[in-house]
Amino acid sequence: MRRVFVVLNLLMIFIYAISCATVGEKKPKLTQEEIKDSAKVWYAIGKDYLIKAEDNRASYEDAIRNFRKSLYYASRIEDKNDTLLKILLVDYAYSFLKNKQLDSAEYYYNKLISIDSTDPRGWQGLGFLYGIVMKDYDKAERYFKKALVVSPNDPDVLFGLAKVYELSGKKDKAREIYYEAIKKDSDNVALNRSFGKFLFEVGDYEEAIKYLERAYEKSENKEDKDILEKLVDAYRKAYKKNKEVDISKALNYINKLLDMEPDNYSYYIKRASIYEALKENKKAIEDYNKAYELNQNAKILLLKQAFLYNDIGNKSEAERLAKVVATDKEVEDVVRATAWALIGDIRQNRGIRLYKSKKYEDAVSVFDSALAAYQQTQLLGDQKWKDYAAKQISRVKVLRKKAWRKWKRIE
Q1: Is the dihedral of CA 39, 40, 41, 44 positive or negative?
Q2: How many helices (H) and strands (E) does the chain have?
Q3: Is the pLDDT score of 107 beyond 90?
Q4: How far apart are CA 362 and CA 364, in angstroms?
């Protein structure tokens, strides 16, 4: 019933509009207050679409369509101190930029500048357009510097300029401007994230951790995979360069990632490497094993377990796993060579123990098997492994000779 009522109302409005047009009746002129209200309403609708478009819940075309309606009214506001038009132009231009309508984006950023050249957002928008989107870094730098002239303490402008320097390869300048921006807005999540990632890329991992952690702490999104992954990698790389780094802090971040994606085998590998650094070898073995269960093409994970089993004294399991890798012809040669080297080391040490126990015949047999393993290392390995195997072969031959002489009672 209600639906019928709505339809009848719409029909009456349509008939009224037609009759007005027929007799030439003019629409009443809107007051300034009505114009402002109309501009605000359409802007609010456009802004809502823009926010939704940022995470794919709407299209930028939806935002553009409503911003266009808002601009129709906003451009008729007589009060030149009214700020709506400038705010609208910023979002309108940005919507065009995100919709890849770059000419329109440039036009409306320039329109904002023509209305108020002291508003940094017009210059900043052009800087972003040319620097981040079009990769014209010289033009982008000029526009960001013009924005700084009118707003020298604006951290967003400094952020944009730092990003342009970063992308254009001017690392020292980028670092300098990033620091300046951070001083002015230390809680800015995007700024801390970007600076942290920049420091990571230039290899300053410990410093990167500081800003990435701040970005994560200040962010409302505690499931931000991008920051979490970068933090885990930053801790691992920082620890590799400096063993004083507290890598145990990385466990919190990798555990969050595993809570989000429990079947991501690469996360288990990263956590295993952290456990290795912490000398928690049994936990590392569990994670490498879980990663292998998720990706059984990654035979190197068996080799990693083999080395860990060897470290904790389970030589038989270490040799068994290493042999699975060593004898698999589909595995890369250098990986097989590594496996054979481990097998050779295990057998060599076993032979030494037998020799010390005066089981000389058994020692000779085990030394022979060690030599065979090292010969496979020489056959399959790169120069590093060839050199290692040659050195071990020479040593084992001496040990074998001594065991053989004892066995034959020559000595």
Answers
A1: positive
A2: 20, 0
A3: yes
A4: 5
Question: Sign of dihedral through CA atoms 222, 293, 236, 197?
Answer: negative
Percent residues over pLDDT 70 in the chain: 93
Comparing CA positions, the residue from 137, 134, 197 lying closest to residue 170 is: 137
Is residue 341 within 8 Å of residue 381, measured between CB atoms?
yes
Candidate CATH numbers 1.10.3470, 3.30.300, 3.30.200, 1.20.58; the one for domain 332-411: 1.20.58
Domain boundaries, the chain: 332-411
Judge whether 108 and 138 are in contact, CB under 8 Å: no
Closest C-alpha among 137, 105, 139 to residue 121: 105
Amino acid at 182: I
pLDDT at residue 202 is higher than 90: yes
Specify the 3-state DSSP secondary structure of 105: helix
The rounded Cα 277 to chain-centroid distance in angstroms is 23
Cβ atoms 129, 103 nearer than 8 A: no
Q: Which long-range contacts (CB under 8 A, 24 or more apart) does 251-256 make?
A: 253/216, 253/228, 254/228, 256/222, 256/223, 256/228
- In DSSP notation, 270-295 reads HHHHHHHHTT-HHHHHHHHHHHHHH-
**Global pTM?**
0.81
Closest among 301, 305, 284, 283 to 292, alpha carbons compared: 301
* Mean pLDDT of the chain, nearest integer: 93
DSSP helix/strand/coil, 350: helix
**Tokens 């995979």, residue?**
225
